[in-house]
Structure to design on (460 residues):
């Protein structure tokens, strides 16, 4: 299966492997939540090399993990290694020192996947790796890759107080694919179809590969989300469980946000708990993002939202009715949640439009010093897409709607009103509209209006 995207990550890992082959040992750390493609990327790196790939398992004893690691060495490196081994290693220090000796005369790539699962009461696995690296790794042709899906744990290992702080030569965090990059998984879909596919699947490669281009959007949703055992129905708890202990109230916070609570006080009120630590951990793991309005004249009070489009879909549309879907009532649930589903698509469309404008800035179609985001003033106005220049004046202001009808002159008048709130009297922004129906008539009649459809978002 073709490896799509991840060009930066592939270049970094390939360069590290080349350095290790020249006798410059390399320690790499690759982390990101489940399903983002870490294993696929590292398997691609290991293909055709002298390598060992080991995946730690949950709840196994250290003795059992070491036995499994010994078995992987024998299976993947063959008889020459078997002759050097008398039995399972007594501890992980002995195991790591052994693979270092194997790399003294011939390059060796060792991947330890789900490394946080090797933490034990005896100590942090990162501390052990760091100690071995400092005391026993010199000029071996060794590349050791530690990978993990427990994002918060991995970042603690790499942080100022973690065992791996400033030790790796390569640190790569992998997040779900962005809207624009994910389009490469489903090139046969038109813009409208892809917006809906991405709204359901998010940027997860497995989800996108399972989306059938031979079926309609409704048929894909019926199969993947609204059927017992459907991939999109069951995958969210698996992704979250790797990183979050539900006893910490994380689910209550995410449920509150999916229900529309965006301010810290509102989230705490709906979750009925203190949320400072919980919200901070969710942010560090990438499940929640903090959003501030851009521009000097905007309110600085931040808002919070679920930062993963698939998980936002699951919490908003599927979670509360999961038992009904598992009880084979998915068709009824799908009809009952149509409004919520369309509202979710609208949020995805807004995010994709902001990415579209960032690409316009990068491509030189807008001022190169423009920054892109959202703008709002509490109880006054809110703008979906806003690009602000260095002089703090808007260079583009836009609105998004998941609608088939075209934008009207009234929509343009309203957007011009908002522009007056954002910039000074000399501001002369472009006004942009994104929807299924577009705003071609407005664009034809006004030189400062731009009209975009979903096809423009995916460069179809």
């Amino acid at each position: 299966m073709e490896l799509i995207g991840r060009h930066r990550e592939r270049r970094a890992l390939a360069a590290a492997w080349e350095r290790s082959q020249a006798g410059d040992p390399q320690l790499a750390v690759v982390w990101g939540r489940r399903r983002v493609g870490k294993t696929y990327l590292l398997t691609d790196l290991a293909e055709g090399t002298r390598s060992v790939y080991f995946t730690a398992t949950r709840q196994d004893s250290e003795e059992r993990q070491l036995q499994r690691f010994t078995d992987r060495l024998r299976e993947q490196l063959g008889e020459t290694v078997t002759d050097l081994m008398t039995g399972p290693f007594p501890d992980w220090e002995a195991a790591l020192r052994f693979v270092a000796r194997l790399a003294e005369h011939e390059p060796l790539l060792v991947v330890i996947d789900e490394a946080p699962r090797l933490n034990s009461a005896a100590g942090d696995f990162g501390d052990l790796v760091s100690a071995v690296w400092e005391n026993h790794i010199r000029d071996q042709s060794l590349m050791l890759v530690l990978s993990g899906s427990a994002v918060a744990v991995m970042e603690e290992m790499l942080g100022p107080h973690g065992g791996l702080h400033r030790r790796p030569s390569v640190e790569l965090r992998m997040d779900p694919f962005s809207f624009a990059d994910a389009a490469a998984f489903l090139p046969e879909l038109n813009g409208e179809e892809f917006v809906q596919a991405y709204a359901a699947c998010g940027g997860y490669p497995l989800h996108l590969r399972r989306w059938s281009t031979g079926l309609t959007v409704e048929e894909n949703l019926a199969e993947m989300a609204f059927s017992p055992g459907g991939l999109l129905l069951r995958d969210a708890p698996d992704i979250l469980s790797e990183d979050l202990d539900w006893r910490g109230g994380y689910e209550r916070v995410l449920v509150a946000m999916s229900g529309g609570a965006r301010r810290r006080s509102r989230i705490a009120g709906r979750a009925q708990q203190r949320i400072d630590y919980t919200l901070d951990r969710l942010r560090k793991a990438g499940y929640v993002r903090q959003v501030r309005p851009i521009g000097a004249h905007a309110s600085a009070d931040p808002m919070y939202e679920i930062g993963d489009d698939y998980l936002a879909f699951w919490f908003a549309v599927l979670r509360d009715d999961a038992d009904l879907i598992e009880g084979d009532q998915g068709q009824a649930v799908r009809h009952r949640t149509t409004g919520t589903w369309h509202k979710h698509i609208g949020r995805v469309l807004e995010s994709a439009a902001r990415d579209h404008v960032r690409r316009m800035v990068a491509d030189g179609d807008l001022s190169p010093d423009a920054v892109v985001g959202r703008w709002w003033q509490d109880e006054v106005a809110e703008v979906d897409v806003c690009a602000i220049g260095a002089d703090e004046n808007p260079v583009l202001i836009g609105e998004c709607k998941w609608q088939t009808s075209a934008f009207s002159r009234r929509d343009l008048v309203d957007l011009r009103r908002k522009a007056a709130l954002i910039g000074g009297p000399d501001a002369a922004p472009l006004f942009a509209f994104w929807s299924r129906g577009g705003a071609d008539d407005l664009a034809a009649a006004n030189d400062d209006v731009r009209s975009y459809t979903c096809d423009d978002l995916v460069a179809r």
Observations:
- Residues 338-362 form the longest helix (25 residues).
- The chain has a mean pLDDT of 93.
- The radius of gyration is 25 Å.
